[in-house]
Amino acid sequence: MSASYRVFATRALPGAGFAELRQDPAFDLDVWPVDFPPAREELLQHVAGMDGLLCLITDTIDEAVLDAAGAQLKVVSQMAVGVDNVDVAACAARGIPVGNTPGVLTETTADMAWALILASARRVVEAAEYVKDGMWQTWTPTQMAGVDVFGSTLGIVGFGAIGQAIARRAQGFGMRVLCWNRTPRPDESAVVGAEQRAFDEVLSQSDFVCVSIALTNDTRNLINARAFELMKPSAILINTARGPIVDESALVRALQDGVIGGAGLDVTAVEPLAMDSPLLEMDNVVVLPHIGSASTATRGKMADMAVANLRAGLAGRPLPNSVGD
Fold it and tell me: Using CA atoms, how far apart are residues 100 and 55, in angstroms rounded to an integer?
């Protein structure tokens, strides 16, 4: 029996759903064979004539890609919540649904935000390197002294599902929680004991500022030089959302000039971060390789959701999770 659907997957995915897809005779599956994303020319070549596209946040899906795919492309399914790398409007204009994977990674990403809060406040990475470098010779009263988390003030910029999950965890640390969202969410903030405040108030009053907002044209460089000037000199910025929400040049200057106290970043403006970035030279900065949702269970569930979206789109059914619905 010949395959019914041609699909290009820009990377092999974890999870049972993708393994089943590979074995399903109804699918002619072209899987990009290495961990690095396909180069632009390769993406355009491999997507040609495909019925479906399984992609990741590292793939730019724009008009040119849609043109290369041709009129038979029925669905774009991304293994991520954010789809800032996908031209959703261009897909909609062609009647192509775009799938994403919301909900399943909320708690895992909130855990990572808290890992960065604690690591940054208590200098965990710096202290671990201190030991590995043979610097631990004795105990002194001020050795690797950090800042307290318990009883401090947490500001959350963006109060969607992940922001709310971060706030829930703050209750166990006796924190005052301030939040700002583009659309006020009084009911959600009340449930987790958060106080809705103006954007400037959240920045100026918080000891930790967590960025948990989607990247859009309106939020690009939302955290800029002006925002850093509003923050406390001791404040620590945490970003587990998208790198371009923070003006990275302004962040570097703010850290170098002591405008803020530190940063914990799971995302950067350009990924991977260049090895000559000043951020990597700073002891008060923790940089991770975009692993907010990277637990084995969560990534498997995300992949299964992406495959379910793909199958539904190819069959002409509504996607279980469709962007814009």
Answer: 10
* Given the residues 6, 46, 123, 290, the one annotated as active site: 290
Give Cβ neighbours of residue 69 (< 8 Å, ≥ 6 apart). Answer: 47, 48, 49, 50, 53
242 in catalytic set: yes
Q: Which of 22, 271, 281, 317 is catalytic?
A: 271
Q: DSSP character for 56?
A: -
Q: Which long-range contacts (CB under 8 A, 24 or more apart) does 23-29 make?
A: 25/1, 26/1, 27/3, 28/3
Structure-token pair, residue 216: 């859009």
Instruction: Specify whether 248 is catalytic.
Output: no
Q: Which of 11, 169, 185, 242 is catalytic?
A: 242
141, burial (CB in 10 Å: exposed 0-12, middle 13-18, buried 19+): exposed
Give the span between the Cα atoms of 295 and 284, in whole angstroms: 26
Copy the structure tokens of residue 259. 């405008």
SS3 75: strand
| Complete edge-to-edge strand list for the sheet that includes strand 262-265 | 194-196, 176-180, 153-157, 208-211, 236-239, 262-265, 285-287
pLDDT of residue 324: 79
Pick the closest to residue 32 from 4, 16, 49, 53 (CA basis).
53
Contact 114, 129 (CB under 8 A): no
Rounded Cα distance between 182 and 219, Å, is: 10
User: Is 271 a catalytic site residue?
Assistant: yes
Query: What pLDDT, in 10s, does the model give residues 39-63?
Result: 999 999 999 999 999 999 999 999 9
pLDDT tens for 173-190 read 999 999 999 999 999 999
